[in-house]
Design a protein that fits this description.
Layout (H helix, E strand, L loop, with lengths): L1 H6 L10 H6 L2 H13 L11 H30 L29 H5 L9 H4 L10 H10 L3 H9 L4 H14 L3 H16 L10 H19 L2 H15 L4
Length: 245
């Protein structure tokens, strides 16, 4: 909650994510909501270097869309095994919250969006991060000033990178519809994280190590057509992350 307040000091209204409502201790959620309700939002919401930020977004969108499009077949494949939504707000669409993406027509967006984690790579959190290499010093400074928790958020997402999973997908790419070019884009993102001093994968705590092993088992179960095991592994991974996606 400290990070949220620091990132959005002048925002008055928040929507609580369903994962936070359902997958965290009730007392922690009540305390966090109380903090939001009792804070005094700032009045100044000016965004410095607005033009630079728009340019950064445009660069990022090109790279992110290209990467996610390359993962679309795999995401559609694994989405069939994602547990159906609980009582949560419905997110409409996929890949930028649109019903389709460059000719692809996925099924219900929120259901599939959560499966983007399955290769041991968080497309929503890490995808397209290699765009940072394309930024000038001035652009990176503007991004860091506007996105206060950039490094923190990337560090959280990077925790679930599984290098062994990427090696497996390189070998099994045809079965999942993933080309070597897409794997190369993913590896570029991971290299960018490490160049930033952010550890990608190689978990040191028990839960993260367990998540990494489950991700490998998930890929194997998909390749072998063991549907019951696939669902079981996805649920166990979600419990570790406190979220389906």
């Amino acid at each position: 909650m400290d990070n949220v307040i620091r990132e959005y000091p002048c925002v008055h209204t928040f929507t609580i994510q369903s994962a936070f409502r359902y997958d965290y201790p009730e007392g922690s959620v009540i305390n966090a909501v109380s903090r939001l309700n009792n804070r005094a939002p700032g009045s100044d919401c000016l965004i410095a270097d607005y033009g630079k930020l728009v340019g950064i977004i445009r660069k990022y969108v090109v790279n992110y869309q290209r990467e996610v499009e390359g993962l679309a077949n795999a995401i559609n494949k694994v989405s069939n095994y994602v547990p159906r939504r609980r009582a949560r707000k419905l997110h409409i669409g996929l890949f930028g919250y649109s019903r389709g993406f460059r000719g692809r027509s996925p099924s219900q967006g929120n259901h599939i969006r959560r499966s983007a984690l399955f290769p041991g790579y968080t497309a929503r959190g890490v995808g397209g991060v290699s765009t940072i290499n394309e930024l000038s010093d001035a652009e990176y400074a503007a991004l860091s000033e506007a996105y206060v928790n950039l490094r923190h958020d990337l560090s959280v997402a990077a925790r679930y990178v599984c290098h062994e999973c990427l090696d497996m997908l390189t070998k099994l790419g045809n079965a999942f519809g993933i080309t070597n070019d897409v794997i190369h884009m993913v590896r570029k993102d991971i290299e960018t994280l490490e160049e930033m001093g952010i550890r990608a994968g190689g978990p040191s705590d028990y839960e993260s190590r367990k998540h990494e092993l489950l991700a490998q088992l998930l890929i194997n179960s998909l390749a072998e057509g063991r549907e019951d095991d696939t669902v079981k592994y996805m649920v166990e991974m979600a419990l570790i992350r406190h979220a389906i996606g």
